[in-house]
Here is the input.
Amino acid sequence: MNTLFDKKESWGKSKRKGQQDKALVEMVKLGYEKSVSVKKMLDANNINPANIKSREDLECLPVTSREKLVEMEQQNPPYAGLENPDIQIDRVFTSPGPVYEPHLSETDYLWARAFFAAGIGTKDIALNAFSYHLVAAGLTFHSGLRRVGATVVPSGASSSQIQVQLIKDLKVTAYVGTPSFLKTIIDKSKEMGFDFRKDFLVKKACFAAEPLLPDLRRSFEKEYGIDTYQMYGATEVGDVGYECSEKKGWHICEETIVEIVDPATGKNVPEGELGEVVVTRLNNIFFLLRFGTGDLSRLITETCPCGRTSYRLAGIAGRVGDAVKVRGLFIAPSQIKMLQAKFNNLPLQVVVSRTGHEDVLKLRIEKISPEIGNAPWEENFKKIFREICTVGINNLEYLSAGEIKPEEKLVVDQRKW
Here is the structure.
C-alpha cells in the first residue's frame, strides 16, 4: 500500500477509535456553536455537548431518518439549519425529497478508498456511468477516481450505444456505475457485433446504488473476466463502506462512525446482530449526527485477511420503513403525497418490481376524472413525477375509482432479492 490513507487503514482498533472519538467531540462542539438545529436538538434533549466524548455517547441523540431530514429541510431550507455558516460551500447536490446536501470538502477521500481497494490506479481509464447532473454520484465518484490517479471518462447517463463506443475507442479498463447498466452495455455490445470479453479491456468494475445479485456477479466474473467490487454509501453522508479483494464484507470508511441500532429504540444492538445502519460522518461543514440510512445490516468486527483493521458491514439485508430504492434512488411516501397534492389528491400507488436485472416502476392510478389517461395528461404527469421523484415511470395502470384502498401502502416493493 502506498497511498495517503493506507496507514490509517491498518491502524490498531484502539487508535482508530481514539482518533474518531476526538473528531466526534470536535464536530459536536462546533455543531452546537454553529448549527441552530444541532443546538436546538441537544437543548431539547437536555444534552450537554461536553458530555459527548465517544461514539458510545451518540446513543443519547435521536436518529434522523431520511424522511425526517426532508421535513427539517422543508421547514428550514435549504440545509435544515445543520450547516456551518462560516464555511463557503463549493457545490450543492440534491436527491429526491428534495434533500439538499452541501459538498463536504475537496480534501475528503470520498470513494478513493473503495477504488484503491479495487485495484484501480494510475494505469486505469475508468468509465464513470453515474449522472453528473444535480446528484452527488457523478462528481464524487469522479473525484475519488482522480484521487487514486485514474483517467476518468465522464460518460454519465449517455446511451448504452455511446458507452460501448467510448469503451472501445478509449480502451477503458474499469467501469463505475450500477450493475444493471453494465449488463445493458454488455448486451448492447453484442447487438453491435462485439465480443465484450475479447474485444474490450474492461477488467474491473465498482458498483453502487443497487444490489449486485450473486448470479450477475458470477456472470461478470466468469463470463466476462471482470473483477467486481461493491461500494455502499448515501448522498447525505457520502461513502460508508467498500469491498476489498477478499469480498467478505464492506470495510467502513475512516471518516464515518457506523452504528447498528434497533430501529424502534435507536439503541445499539449487541455485536453481530442485525439492525439499522446509522451513520455519522465526521466533518466541520454539515452536522448531520446519527443519520438513519434505513438499511439493515450487521457488523463484522474481526480483522480482514487483507490487512485492513476497520470493522465491516455484512452487506444489506433489507430496508427499514417504507422508502424504496429504485434504480439507485429512493422513492419515499412523502414524495408520493407531494405528487398527489399536485393532482387534486389523486389516488395512486407506486409498485416496484424487477424484470431480469432491471427495476420496473409502475404507477397505479384511479381515473377519477375524464382527462386522466389521455396523452397530454400522461405527458404532464410523467414530467412532474420525474421532477419530484427523479426516476422515470415504466408503466401506467389505470383503475376505477375506489380500487386503491386508503390503508394500502403508497409505495409497494415486490422485488425479491
